[in-house]
Design brief:
Layout (H helix, E strand, L loop, with lengths): L1 H8 L5 H6 L46 H8 L12 H10 L8 H7 L5 H4 L12 H5 L6 H4 L3 H5 L2 H11 L7 H12 L17 H5 L9 H7 L15 H29 L13 H4 L33 H8 L4 H13 L6 H25 L7 H10 L8 H11 L6 H14 L15 H13 L2
Bound molecules: heme C (4 copies).
Length: 461
């Protein structure tokens, strides 16, 4: 269901069906690769038949040993480097005044295994296959490559395993917070990381205006849209797994936005970045069709800010109150965030003020994430009611596309019955991008559909 939803909304997301048509893994299909790299081992080193390159999943064990083959055949990440050689990327490069996108660190930071982006920028042939295994699982060569194949590693109980991961530098993706933190590094962006050698990952407005698709990461739908190369039965006894991924993604997404925003403000302070950075503002506030009457004419649309001021884009922060309520975290954060939004809805905020405000939020959100990593998310039994009550309190009359879409995605968490799914479908029709568009043409808030649906879910048992 989620797969279908996501493809329906984001018109460029037809990855799954397209990927399915590709040929299964054969060694002759692999592009030529240079090996022996200091920062990573490369995905090819995981591809042995007895390791992760089997053609069929081995049943009855957690690690199914066909991860490489399944990733290569079905996962868009395997194509991320190739995307830089596409016509779209060539047009973007021309618009940006760069010779080759596949040698530009800005692009490579997200379109290859990021630990090798700098080295990749110096050579023409790919050093790894796209966004490879170590982009998400952590660099293997420095530590865990050898030890993770031993019987001792495989047989250690889950508690000890977590410690092993930590000591050996392997990222424990089983933890929903850790997992979504990894995704947002590229799907939202991140400042430079001097420990891992990863350059800044910043899809700013220059890159958007050159023709890049807008980044609208939402953990639940993106995880559902990524063909699983892991044994999903692992979670069959945890009916809250989807919810945990959703909560973690909401918090990690906003945290990444704040860290990136701080980085951008610092660039502006150093006179090496644009200010305000347009990619932080609501895209459709500038890229809107003029209409009369306009839904922005609603008397509440500008409440709390001046007409013509630039609203900070809230894609990743929209459902912060809901995520905090479900994870039992301090609701003070909501007030802090709404003060932040107010301060950023003005052209007058200096980069210095903006950076200070982002830094405070980022550090609070990091604190919350640390706590959730250690203690788990532990949603209360009545989380459905909590979520719906919180959503019902919103004034949806002037809901932006971001707000409506985030709410619709959250409602998909709790819509399983046939009539609920039919409601959901009505909702998607008001939000979907028309064919040929990568934005919500003629969007109008559909507060009635949203409110009625929320009420219906509240009364359904
Ligand atoms: C912050 C990380 C980031 C940066 C920087 C970045 N990209 Fe991307 N790019 C992505 C992600 C993530 C997607 C997939 C978007 C989605 O579907 O949600 C993508 C998608 C694309 C696509 C569309 C691919 C397709 O299959 O349709 C192209 C082309 C592209 N990027 C080229 C570039 C170029 C060229 C640059 C440098 C000028 C660049 N990107 C910089 C993360 C990034
Ligand atoms: C875009 C991120 C990403 C990339 C790239 C990636 N993985 Fe994964 N991998 C995941 C996630 C997420 C999981 C699920 C973790 C969980 O829920 O326990 C996973 C799980 C696994 C597991 C199962 C681990 C377990 O304990 O259940 C193996 C094995 C694995 N990946 C191997 C690989 C290999 C080999 C590659 C490269 C061919 C690769 N992965 C590429 C994200 C990624
Ligand atoms: C190193 C950067 C990086 C990381 C980390 C990463 N991604 Fe991606 N992801 C990309 C890029 C780049 C693309 C676009 C690839 C293309 O279209 O060629 C992409 C594409 C996708 C797509 C396909 C979107 C579409 O348009 O069809 C999904 C789904 C996705 N990623 C989910 C995830 C999830 C879930 C995680 C975390 C477990 C994750 N990604 C981690 C860079 C990354
Ligand atoms: C403050 C106003 C403003 C905001 C906010 C803004 N843009 Fe732009 N954008 C512009 C201007 C100005 C241009 C240049 C238009 C021209 O040259 O005709 C532009 C150009 C573009 C273009 C290329 C022209 C086109 O229509 O294809 C794209 C794509 C784009 N922006 C995407 C985005 C995205 C995505 C966002 C949100 C993340 C965004 N913009 C936010 C002002 C803005």
């Amino acid at each position: 269901m989620l797969l279908w939803i996501v493809s329906f909304i984001f018109s460029h997301q037809d990855s799954f069906s397209r990927a399915q048509e590709k040929q299964p893994y054969k060694s002759s299909n692999l592009p030529k690769q240079e090996t022996n790299h200091p920062a990573i081992s490369t995905s090819a080193s995981c591809s042995g038949r007895g390791c992760h390159g089997g053609s069929e999943p081995v049943t009855g064990q957690i690690v199914q040993q066909n991860e490489f083959s399944s990733w290569l055949a079905h996962d868009k990440h395997a194509n991320a480097y190739q995307a830089l050689l596409s016509d779209r990327a060539k047009t973007m490069a021309k618009n940006l005044g760069i010779t080759e996108a596949h040698k530009d660190i800005r692009c490579l930071a997200c379109h290859t295994t990021p630990q090798i982006a700098r080295e990749q920028a110096k050579v023409d042939s790919p050093l790894d296959l796209g966004v490879g295994c170590e982009s998400c699982h952590g660099s293997a060569s420095s530590k865990w490559l050898g030890i993770h194949t031993t019987e001792a590693w495989k047989n250690s109980p889950i508690k000890e395993k977590k410690a092993l991961y930590e000591n050996e530098g392997m990222i424990y993706l089983g933890n929903p917070v850790v997992q979504t933190q990894v995704c947002v590094g590229c799907h939202v962006g991140a400042p430079e990381n001097t420990t891992t050698g990863i350059p800044a990952r910043d899809a700013n407005h220059d890159i958007m205006a050159a023709g890049h698709p807008r980044l609208t990461f939402e953990s639940l739908s993106y995880q559902a849209n990524m063909p699983p190369h892991w044994n999903t039965k692992k979670y069959s006894s945890n009916s809250n797994r989807d919810l945990e991924i959703w909560v973690a993604g909401q918090i990690a997404g906003l945290s990444a936005t704040m860290e990136l925003s701080s980085h951008r403000a610092q660039l502006a302070i150093n006179n090496s970045g644009a200010w305000p950075e347009f990619a932080e503002s609501s895209c459709i506030s500038c890229h809107a069709d003029f209409q009369q009457p306009s839904w922005r004419g609603n008397k509440n649309y500008y409440s709390g800010r001046k007409p013509g001021s630039l609203p900070f884009d809230s894609w990743t922060g929209v459902l912060l109150p809901e995520a905090l309520a479900i994870s039992g975290q301090d609701k003070q954060m909501t007030a802090l965030y709404s003060d932040f939004l107010k301060s950023r809805n003005s052209f007058l905020t200096s980069p210095k003020q903006a950076k200070a405000a982002s830094d405070i939020l980022a550090s609070q959100l990091q604190k919350i994430q640390k706590e959730l990593i250690v203690n788990g998310i532990n949603p209360p039994k009545e989380w459905r009611k909590l979520l719906l009550d919180q959503l019902a309190r919103r004034d949806l009359e002037t809901a932006s596309w971001n707000e409506s879409t985030q709410i619709a995605l959250a409602l998909s968490l709790i819509s399983s019955k046939a009539n609920e799914q039919a409601n959901l479908q009505n909702l998607w029709e008001t939000l979907a991008f028309p064919s040929g568009y990568e934005s919500p043409k003629d969007y109008k808030p559909s507060s009635r559909i949203l409110q009625e649906f929320i009420q219906k879910l509240k009364t359904n048992k």
